[in-house]
Design goal:
The complex is a heterodimer of chains A (314) and B (380).
Chain A lengths: L10 E12 L2 E12 L3 E5 L6 H8 L7 E6 L2 E2 L4 H7 E4 L11 H11 L5 H12 L14 H13 L5 E5 L7 H16 L3 E6 L2 H4 L4 E6 L2 E6 L1 H8 L2 E7 L2 H9 L6 E5 L2 E6 L2 H12 L4 E6 L3 H16 L1
Parallel strand pairs in A: 3-8, 3-9, 6-7, 7-8
Antiparallel strand pairs in A: 1-2, 1-4, 4-5, 9-10, 11-13, 11-14, 12-13
Helix pairs in contact in A: 3-4, 3-5, 4-5, 8-11
Chain B lengths: L6 H21 L1 H21 L7 E7 L4 H12 L3 E7 L2 H9 L5 E5 L3 H7 L4 E6 L4 H21 L14 E3 L10 H23 L1 H8 L1 H6 L5 H31 L7 H25 L3 H17 L12 H8 L2 H15 L3 H25 L6
Parallel strand pairs in B: 1-2, 1-3, 4-5
Antiparallel strand pairs in B: 3-4
The chains are: A alpha/beta (314), B alpha/beta (380).
Chain lengths: 314, 380
């Protein structure tokens, strides 16, 4: 295999052929990915697709069954202690101490990472997070949004080089989500690499690059535009009456690979443009329907990828 | 263990863990309350309840003759706190039935011609049958019986008053183990050991599984902290808790039961700390093996039982078969009870207790080694 990436190179994560199974069921299959330093890398995929498992393998919480690679230039198989020192991992479920206050949690992290002035570091972090005045509040008493801020604060406290965020915005309101992403972009601008898993399409579009994973396999990667273009999907938008009935009819028609309601309209997509045209031709003459060619959205692409993955793996 | 085990970093991580555990302990009001009430309650409860000097021992008297001496003895038994005369019988069958059914634990038989033999100076025998299922209680009841009867016979002028006179009668019974002196003197050291074992085991037995169940283990493992630092940080706060408990028990033992500390208090504290650390390590080991808090608790209790039964606390160590003694030797509390009895009651020094202290150290290190090796550093 290729030589591991030296520390200081511009590749933060470089892994090849990662495979992990639990109880005989493969959760991640032969996954390879490469993330450049300073990038915000979106990790997308349905529930149970292997996102969390992959992230855990990257930071040494799980040992891959096979595969190899480096994280921040350190071997993920043999140097997990060093990786842990330079990585901030935000778990999907809040995993700081509920029975400790905000300040006590932050001081704990600062001490574990051996920061010279844990109290000062915690205070700075509290100010940065806008948590001043609430630092003595117990973590258990915080709302979802504040918990998430605290968890992020704890992750970036030891000044890591890489952030691994596992669905950090699940269950958080839109305003808090927007602020969270502003923070992530500010951190990336400072040179931090961020790998973030998410379900939200709008969040995917905020990433520099994305990877789509389903059933343990990486199905697409690149910038949002590259992924959309790479899917080769042709889509039409239909508005009109009785879209539900139409949707059922179209879904069963050969040439239509994807039908999805989108507000008051319907997205109809297919990988073969000509076949799709033939499939919708009978309905285009329907006066109650209005058909327009449309660019496929990222969501269209993902739903299509997922449907195809399902056909292949299940 | 790890490649970057620099000392300042190691200490910082240990310190982080220790501070965190202390803070969590402070917030846990129930645990805080039990920390003080449980040892005191157990000591007072068992200290008063476990009493090998019998009181109100259910007793029957079998009178084979109707005599003044017999009535005098009966009256003496009735007037004493030791015995509770339930029945006076005259047949062998009734006698056997009472003892077999457990209605009485003790039967005193005044044989026929007892009075005549006594007057003749033939040293007649008072026959005693005791329920052997409680040998300790009946053992000390026997010695109480002797002096009771002697006093009664002297008072009622059946026998001479002089102290140096040869005994006018004898008590015939099976030889039994008989703990010397006040029972509390023996029980407080034993309780110190067993109470500390129970509380210390449970505190640490829950510590790792709790982190797993609460989901905090994932964060902890993702941080650069190793098994040794986590273990030390989790054990250290409870050393203080254990020492406070030990102080409470020894203090209450002195105030409530007048159990002194004849030997060195410093040595007692130091060896108590060693014992506390050994139990904390064992509890911590359970914590690394168990899947959840319930399992950890069950393991702690499973381990606790032999601590009570085979340590020489409940039953005399010397009376146990060799294999049971070997199991007992492998329990920290066995050595600690010896240490505490030695220091508190006999004034023993380090020289006398060297072997037991070594055992404690060895058991502690073994438990720690197992715990560090068993600690799962990944979520695999």
């Amino acid at each position: 295999m290729t030589a591991s990436v030296a520390p200081g190179s511009d590749i933060a994560i470089d892994v090849r052929g990662l495979t992990k199974s639990f109880g005989g069921r493969a959760v991640v299959k032969n996954l390879s990915m490469r993330v450049r330093r300073g990038q915000i890398y979106g990790f997308l995929g349905p529930n149970g697709s292997g996102k969390t498992t992959t992230i855990r393998m990257l930071c040494g919480l799980l040992t891959p069954d096979s595969g190899e690679g480096t994280c921040l230039g350190y071997n993920i198989l043999t140097e997990s202690r060093k990786i842990k020192r330079h990585v901030g991992y935000m778990t999907q479920r809040f995993s700081l101490y509920q029975d400790l206050s905000i300040r006590e949690n932050l001081e704990f992290v600062a001490r574990v990472f051996g920061l010279r002035d844990p109290a000062g570091a915690a205070r700075a972090s509290i100010d940065r997070l806008g948590l001043a005045g609430r630092e003595t509040q117990l973590a258990a008493e915080l709302s979802g949004g504040w918990k998430q801020r605290l968890a992020l604060g704890a992750c970036i406290l030891p000044s890591p080089d890489l952030l691994l965020l596992d669905e950090p915005t699940a269950g958080v309101d839109p305003k808090a989500r927007r602020e969270f992403w502003n923070e992530i972009h500010a951190l990336a601008a400072d040179g931090l690499t961020v790998l973030v898993s998410t379900h939200y399409m709008d969040e995917a579009e905020r990433c520099h690059e994305i990877a789509y994973i389903a059933y343990g396999e990486l199905l697409a990667r690149g910038t949002v535009d590259e992924v959309v273009a790479g899917a080769g999907l042709t889509t039409w938008r239909v508005t009109g009456d009785e879209l539900q009935a139409l949707s059922i009819k179209l879904a069963a028609t050969p040439g239509v690979d994807m039908v999805a309601p989108f507000g008051a309209s319907l997205h109809v997509g297919g990988r073969d443009a000509a076949a799709l045209e033939r499939a919708i031709a009978p309905h285009r003459s329907d006066a109650s329907l209005r058909w327009t060619r449309d660019e496929p959205s990222l969501e269209d692409v993902f739903i299509d990828l997922m449907t195809r993955a399902k056909d292949n793996f299940q | 263990m790890s490649g970057d085990g620099d000392f300042p970093g190691l200490f910082s991580r240990f310190w982080a863990m220790l501070v965190k555990e202390f803070l969590q302990l402070r917030r846990d009001r129930v645990t805080l309350a039990t920390m003080i009430t449980v040892p005191l309650m157990q000591l007072l409860l068992f200290g008063y309840a476990i009493n090998t000097t019998p009181r109100h021992l259910p007793t029957a008297v079998m009178l084979q003759e109707s005599s003044d001496v017999g009535r005098s003895i009966l009256a003496a038994l009735r007037n004493s706190d030791f015995f509770d005369i339930r029945k006076v019988v005259s047949s062998e069958v009734e006698f056997d039935h009472l003892l077999q059914s457990g209605e009485v634990l003790f039967v005193v038989e005044i044989p026929a011609n007892f009075e005549r033999s006594l007057r003749r100076g033939d040293t007649p025998a008072l026959l005693v049958a005791a329920d052997a299922t409680d040998p300790v209680a009946s053992g000390s009841a026997l010695s109480a019986l002797g002096s009771l009867v002697k006093t009664a016979l002297t008072r009622d002028r059946f026998t001479p008053v002089q102290d140096d006179a040869p005994p006018a009668f004898e008590i015939r019974s099976h030889a039994r183990y008989n703990p010397a002196g006040s029972s509390q003197l023996n029980i407080v050291p034993g309780l110190l050991g067993t109470i500390l074992t129970m509380t210390m085991l449970i505190y640490t037995a829950l510590s790792v599984t709790r982190e797993v169940e609460r989901g905090t283990m994932e964060s902890l493992l993702a941080m650069p902290i190793g098994p040794t630092e986590i273990m030390m940080g989790k054990i250290a706060p409870y050393l203080l808790v254990g020492l406070i408990q030990a102080t409470l028990i020894v203090g209450a033992g002195y105030i409530a039961f007048g159990v002194p500390v004849i030997g060195s208090l410093t040595l007692l504290s130091l060896l108590s700390l060693l014992f506390i650390a050994a139990n904390l390590s064992i509890g911590y080991t359970f914590s690394t093996v168990a899947q959840n808090q319930l399992q950890a608790m069950q393991m702690a209790i499973m381990f606790f039982l032999p601590n009570i039964l085979l340590s020489g606390f409940a039953f005399p160590f010397a009376g146990m078969p060799a294999w049971a003694q070997w199991i007992g030797e492998c329990l920290p509390v066995t050595h600690y009870i010896r240490i505490v009895r030695g220091i508190m009651l006999k004034g023993s020094g380090m020289e006398d207790l060297r072997v037991d202290a070594l055992w404690l150290t060895g058991l502690m290190l073994l438990a720690m080694l197992v715990a560090i090796r068993r600690f799962r550093q990944t979520l695999d």
